Amino acid sequence: MGVSIRATALLLLWALALWPLVLELLLLQSPVTAVAWDLRLREGASWTGLALLACTAVAALVHPPFLPGLRLQWHRLRQSMSGDRTRLRNLQFELRQLETAARQLEAGRLALGMGDARTALPHLLRAVELDPEHLAARWQLGLALRQVGQLPLAAAELGGVVARDPAHGFGQARLALGSVLHAMGRDADAVVELRAHELAHGGSPESSFVLGRALLATGDCDAARSAFAAATHWGAGRRLDPQQAWYRARARAALRRLGR
Amino acid sequence: MRNLLDSANEAPVTHLLALGYVTMAFLSGGLDPSSGRLHELGALRGLDVAGGEPWRLLTYSVLHGGIVHLVFNTMMLVWLGPMLERAYGWWRFLVIYLAGALGGAVLFCLLGDPRALCVGGSGALFGMMGAALVRNMRAGRHLFSFLDHDGPRQLIGLIVTNLVLGMLLPGVSNTAHVGGLLGGFAVTFFLLDRGRGPVPRAFALAVAALAFSATWYAVRPVARWDWLLGQAERATDPVAKAAWIEAAALALSADAGPRKAERLHRVERALEPPRGDEAPAQGGNR
């Protein structure tokens, strides 16, 4: 998302910068053509702006998770822009002098916290190489692999962590494993992991929503409905963090589709 | 006197600019200068910039429209200038001032009425505020950590207050203020104070290209009615002249400005065939 926003902004800047040049070229043909194209561009820009506004309004009405989704993207963008890169750069410099698994893990964790999984991955891989029994490193590696779309490798890492310590990260490793298994289409396994997570750690909108999706994929509509309903009951009367609010909104939409 | 000399030694460009403000105020007629005199001395007007007088994009920034205008801008310059000049050095400070002035002028030419006259250093002063904002952004652990402190928050408050005042007070061009702010911010952020992190070169290049092309378009607004009409007036070939006039009329058709009727009348006059007792070339000449 961050990359696509940057790419769009760059594209817009270049399009605006090149427009006077295009007008000069059109002017060589005829001044009327240049003015006509300029007017067309202005009109097109106004209509595009209006259409974007209308699309946003329609999307917010038709698909209620749209606004929580926007809030989540804004939160992620802000996190990636306000991350303290100085600490990461210092660590990367120090790693050239003295390399330890703990420092590699710290660097990977910092990069992952800023949403930069591609920078985090080599650090986390090296941390696991240096200390294969370091569960925190394996967990972070699993998360990074999930973020870059390497689902089978992520499942293997997270599965290894859960096998050694089922409550790792206060149950977050198990939840991540359940999500990855669901994303890979192994819904029956995902249901087992997510139910175990909810039983041991009480669940969250995210776990209930993913459990509902996995149950729906296995064909158990009633169980899926109750999982989605559980997700919607989370945080009643208080403001959830952007990620959990997004899952709750998606659960509400899924419940509406299924029929209460 | 000694204090003033010490201060001038530390911030020479600020003091030269302040001296320039006062000198130009005397030259332009003191307390209440006339529009004609300001125009003679280099006030900004879109029509003139497009008509081959690009220096107006900078010269307007040392002229002022009256004593209140002069005092207010000089006070802002003397308050903010030395801080920035000490922080960045004299030549960088000069670049910031010029970028603010240019940014304000270009945006004024692009969005404002091409016939309106604009004077004052406030565009450049807003550019200085943009540079101060960058200074604060670069000083923290990350770009937004400056928002945790009172001083930088007050700076943002000052910028917003000035913009709101610009909207409320008549005869103030907020377009030039915003342009100046963007100009000063961009030149400091991408060129003068790039911080410790990796420089977003793709963005810097795109912003530089945009600044160049916007300035180019302010000087040569090839799709604006007044520039097209100027070309028509200069053209000697009747076919080319008709094409320029047609283009000017088309550009005007989309213009809903307050002086539309007057402009349309001008195009209509240009479209009229020359009378029998006039030489055809004279009608088009300025």
Short characterization:
The complex is a heterodimer of chains A (260) and B (286). By secondary structure, chain A is mostly helical.
Write the layout of secondary structure elements.
The complex is a heterodimer of chains A (about 260) and B (about 290).
Chain A: H1 2-29, H2 31-62, H3 66-82, H4 85-97, H5 101-113, H6 117-130, H7 135-147, H8 151-164, H9 172-183, H10 187-201, H11 205-218, H12 221-232, H13 242-258
Helix pairs in contact in A: 1-2, 3-13, 4-5, 5-6, 5-7, 6-7, 7-8, 8-9, 9-10, 9-11, 10-11, 11-12, 11-13, 12-13
Chain B: H1 2-10, H2 12-27, H3 35-41, E1 44-45, H4 46-50, H5 56-59, H6 67-88, H7 90-111, E2 117-118, H8 122-139, H9 150-168, H10 174-192, H11 201-219, H12 225-234, H13 238-253, H14 260-271
Antiparallel strand pairs in B: 1-2
List keywords for this structure.
heterodimer; A: 260 residues; mainly alpha; Serine Threonine Protein Phosphatase 5, Tetratricopeptide repeat; 13 helices; 0% strand; flat; B: 286 residues; two-stranded antiparallel sheet; 14 helices; globular
Provide an overview of this structure:
The complex is a heterodimer of chains A (260) and B (286). By secondary structure, chain A is mainly alpha-helical. Among the domains of chain A are: 75 residues, Serine Threonine Protein Phosphatase 5, Tetratricopeptide repeat, CATH 1.25.40.10; 98 residues, Tetratricopeptide repeat domain (Serine Threonine Protein Phosphatase 5, Tetratricopeptide repeat, Alpha Horseshoe), CATH 1.25.40. Helix content of chain A is 82%, strand content 0%. Chain A is built from 13 helices and no strands. The relative contact order of chain A is 0.07. Chain B has 286 residues and is mostly helical. Helices cover 69% and strands 1% of the residues of chain B. Chain B is globular. Chain B is built from 14 helices and 2 strands. A two-stranded antiparallel ribbon of chain B has the order 1-2. The C terminus of chain B is likely disordered. The longest helix of chain B has 22 residues. Chain B starts with a helix and ends in a 15-residue tail after the last helix. Chains A and B meet through helix 1, helix 2, helix 3 and helix 4 of A and helix 11 and helix 13 of B.
